[in-house]
């Protein structure tokens, strides 16, 4: 008895490529019980479409294949029709960060198509989209496809699944705090290491090294504006039962110096960032005099319905201060766990680790498919 | 469309009572989509049986009800027949620590009955039992019922589910280390706190306080012999792909002084334990001189196929040394995560937190039921 499953993949960047590679191995390992065919692979401009639903070859897949043999991607209605007509269960993998695609999740779900995605946009934008997604989804009382999004927070770390288990079993989240950005974790662990006695480095220098190593977005302002953290906190808050209008409906501290918000390019931004090193240096020095370090923290408090994203001064002995590398940390405080948090910690970024979370979601969907 | 599910519960101790209370709330919250009936509640001597499969009342359940209205429990074959004949999907909840019941899991599974349990015995005893369970289980390639056992390690903490997601997605565990006993965590966090400068307390005194507070087993030797940790490590090693003959097939350090192993009662043991305080005190002092603390650690290394359970000296800055209260910590080192571990930390014992893990497993089984 083999289960027959068709998969459509959109997005072939770092996460998309890693996902396709992991999926190919998974299909190989499970071919005796599962018949999985990837029937559609697309990026914004081109697509590979298997019109007869035979499996597209995944081994040694490179995105360039899309350019060579690709045709224009299907429109969302056409893709939904294509998947609905496949004669078996279908899963959409959204490995993009597109709000346009995410805003169509309810349509996919209503058509019985399942979704696994690391794309935060569907779950952290306007509340109406969140409501529409979970009204339709089969794993939240709806009659549509299942939707899983573990990698929207902390990549493959068990964050979303943990909070869901807590809530589903009747526990109540009281507070969550943590470091939710691998990039900002790295920047501050380098800039202001706990117990560090080296001469302080310029913040702009740390950003430059990280950018050159590919640890930041192409334009580091996309990390420094705090919006990535705000989106993740929005998702955790909504899962905790809070009504959050949007990721801009609560205080989010941006680390971009005001005058540089309008810099016309990443390069112009990087050129001028050293002019503001004194400000960040002073914050770090002040903290150090109190035996503390600065970290970029997200936190939510359910009772007061407050969310906060920004720099905080923390004791050098605080678990967040002890983070290393680009690790994330998430501390869940709940009614059952009381004063001692349930803590999940580890690398929370990177193509392979993000793809792993998506694949784990796919496996959960397959387990639920009749 | 409501799913119809029958549940049998064996064991009404601390975990069993908490589970019944949580399950009653869960049934209430989900009555629009699920029709769950508990049809059997038993402890070793007595049982409540709903012969017509109508739901037994769960609200304000107390184990004394079993004595008042109880009849002798069904034999395992009779229980299997009773559940098979129920006309819908059935789940066995084993809230005991009985090896006799656990050794029958394969029979339950082969009959299509699902199992959720915190009972370590089925997964940490002879390897043949492990193999029989997973050969039969529907979630590991078999054609039988599903089996979930999150609470066998770290109570409700996401430990088993995390390692399963890692392995299922193609990652490879290289090393696991941690503190797996809430009781031993508490004892050493009290006896040798990191950074503590108080006059050292006698180990026997710490054990006594813990015993009086109900933090240890009725006979503390059942904690101090290290077997609980050895069983948990056996489970994690097997999930990591290692072949482990039994929990006594690798080095396990017992903290019971040799001459007291044969003490005829817990009381006799407690009376004589102070005679051995000097030994433990010396170990702690030696560690302290090196800037370290002693902790009771379990670790496994996949490459060398080695497992180890016992006291270790750890730097005061080590995450394990920084544990508080009775917290567990599990650090997973894998191929994908590289040098930086994926860490799960938090309270890993207690009726409510253990029951939570069992209920989360039940919810996962229900999600997979057609």
TrEMBL record, chains A, B:
Q: What is its EC number?
A: 1.1.1.3
Q: Where does this protein hold L-homoserine?
A: 217
Its domain of life reads Eukaryota
Q: Which residues bind NADPH?
A: 96, 120
Task: Quote the pathway field.
Answer: Amino-acid biosynthesis; L-threonine biosynthesis; L-threonine from L-aspartate: step 3/5; Amino-acid biosynthesis; L-methionine biosynthesis via de novo pathway; L-homoserine from L-aspartate: step 3/3
**GO BP terms, alphabetized:** homoserine biosynthetic process; methionine biosynthetic process; threonine biosynthetic process
- Catalytic activity line of the entry: L-homoserine + NADP(+) = L-aspartate 4-semialdehyde + NADPH + H(+)
Homoserine dehydrogenase catalytic domain: which residues?
A: 158-363
User: What's this protein's name?
Assistant: Homoserine dehydrogenase
Family matches, as Pfam families:
Homoserine_dh, NAD_binding_3
Q: Which family is this protein grouped under?
A: Belongs to the homoserine dehydrogenase family.
Query: Which residue positions does the secretion signal occupy?
Result: none
Residues forming the Aspartate/homoserine dehydrogenase NAD-binding domain are 11-141
Gene Ontology terms, MF aspect? homoserine dehydrogenase activity; NADP binding
What is the protein's known function? Catalyzes the conversion of L-aspartate-beta-semialdehyde (L-Asa) to L-homoserine (L-Hse), the third step in the biosynthesis of amino acids that derive from aspartate (the aspartate family of amino acids), including methioinine and threonine, the latter of which is a precursor to isoleucine; production of homoserine leads to a branch-point in the pathway as it can either be O-phosphorylated for processing to threonine, or O-acylated for processing to methionine.
> Could you tell me the keywords of this UniProt record?
Amino-acid biosynthesis, Methionine biosynthesis, NADP, Oxidoreductase, Threonine biosynthesis
């Amino acid at each position: 008895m083999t289960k027959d499953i068709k998969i459509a993949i959109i997005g072939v960047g770092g996460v998309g490529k890693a996902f396709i590679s992991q999926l190919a191995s998974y299909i190989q390992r499970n071919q005796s019980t599962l018949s999985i065919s990837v029937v559609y692979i697309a990026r914004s401009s081109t697509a590979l479409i298997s019109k007869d639903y035979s499996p597209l070859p995944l081994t040694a897949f490179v995105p360039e294949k899309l350019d060579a043999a690709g045709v224009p991607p299907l429109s969302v209605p056409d893709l939904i029709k294509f998947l609905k007509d496949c004669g078996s269960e279908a899963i959409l993998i959204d490995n993009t960060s597109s709000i346009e695609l995410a805003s169509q999740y309810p349509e996919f779900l209503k058509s019985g198509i399942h979704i696994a995605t690391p794309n935060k946009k569907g779950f952290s934008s306007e509340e109406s989209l969140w409501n529409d997604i979970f009204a339709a989804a089969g794993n939240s009382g709806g009659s549509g496809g299942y939707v899983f999004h573990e990698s929207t927070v902390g990549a493959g770390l068990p964050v979303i699944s943990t909070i869901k288990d807590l809530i589903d079993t009747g526990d109540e989240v009281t507070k969550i705090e943590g470091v939710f950005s691998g990039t900002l974790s790295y920047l501050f662990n380098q800039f202001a290491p706990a117990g560090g006695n080296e001469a302080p480095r310029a913040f702009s220098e740390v950003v430059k090294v990280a950018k050159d190593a590919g640890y930041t977005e192409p334009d580091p302002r996309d990390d420094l504006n705090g919006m990535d953290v705000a989106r993740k906190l929005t998702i955790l808050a909504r899962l905790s039962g809070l009504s959050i209008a949007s990721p801009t409906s609560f205080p989010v501290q941006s680390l971009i110096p005001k005058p540089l918000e309008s810099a016309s390019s990443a390069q112009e931004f990087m050129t001028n960032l050293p002019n503001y090193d004194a400000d960040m240096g002073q914050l770090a020095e002040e903290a150090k005099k109190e035996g503390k370090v600065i970290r970029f923290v997200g936190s939510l408090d359910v009772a007061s319905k407050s969310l906060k994203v920004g720099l905080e001064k923390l004791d050098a002995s605080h678990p967040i201060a002890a983070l290393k590398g680009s690790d994330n940390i998430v501390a869940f405080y709940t009614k059952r766990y009381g004063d001692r948090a349930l803590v999940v910690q580890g690398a929370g970024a990177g193509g392979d680790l993000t793809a792993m979370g998506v694949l784990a979601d796919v496996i959960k969907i397959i387990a639920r498919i009749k």
